[in-house]
Amino acid sequence: MTDVGEGRLRRVERPTSDLAAVRGPAAILDPVRLAAVRATGLLDSPAVESLDHLTRLAAMLLEAPLAFLTVVDDERSYWASRVGVVEDQRQNTVEESFCQYVVADAAPLIVDDTALNLRTRDNPSVLGMGVRAWAGYPVLDSAGNALGSFCVVDTAPRAWTADQRQSLRRLARLPRTRSPCYAWSAPSASRVPACNCSPAPPNCC
């Protein structure tokens, strides 16, 4: 596990049997979770069209200028899919990310005004990326590990409606399903490539 000292995370040994209960900042460095993140093959992966389809849909449904599907390791939040940022921008540090809060709690984070929220107001991305409203849900693997987040961002404060939150929650669940359209992993030579849903197979979400 990890402990928090002087504002920094440090690694501490923890019995394996206790790892499933890890929450808070320690969860980010949970070795079981980190192994699950690496197993996705999405860290430093090129774009995956099936995941880009989800982020584009989220941005459209929630009328948000930015949308992300991220995987979070012990140092960074890697944007496996993103909408609204420059092409060569693919990640930020864990400390700069809002995904750290979702991974730490394995729970959603909905913020209407990041500058007024006690948890987020000092996050560097409020000024650095202009993040003023944020809504995200954890993306979980089949074992319940929080691998990252599925989120939308606005550059102005806004109230996220109940319908918008519900839509985002449903989209965040798709990568963990067994649908061939939204496999939660990067394509590789050893796997059948994710389908592009055209035409959609019978069991496609």
Describe this structure in words.
The protein is an alpha+beta fold. The protein has a single domain, classed as Beta-Lactamase (2-Layer Sandwich). The chain contains five helices and eight strands. Strands 5-4-3-8-7-6 form a six-stranded antiparallel sheet, with helices on both faces. Strands 1-2 form a two-stranded antiparallel ribbon. Strand 7 (133-140) and strand 8 (146-154) form a beta hairpin. The longest helix has 13 residues, at 49-61. Residues 1-21, 177-182 and 188-205 have low confidence and may be disordered.
Chain-wise SSE layout:
Layout: E1 2-5, E2 8-11, H1 31-39, H2 49-61, E3 66-72, E4 76-83, E5 91-93, H3 99-105, E6 109-111, H4 125-128, E7 133-140, E8 146-154, H5 162-173
Antiparallel strand pairs: 1-2, 3-4, 3-8, 4-5, 6-7, 7-8
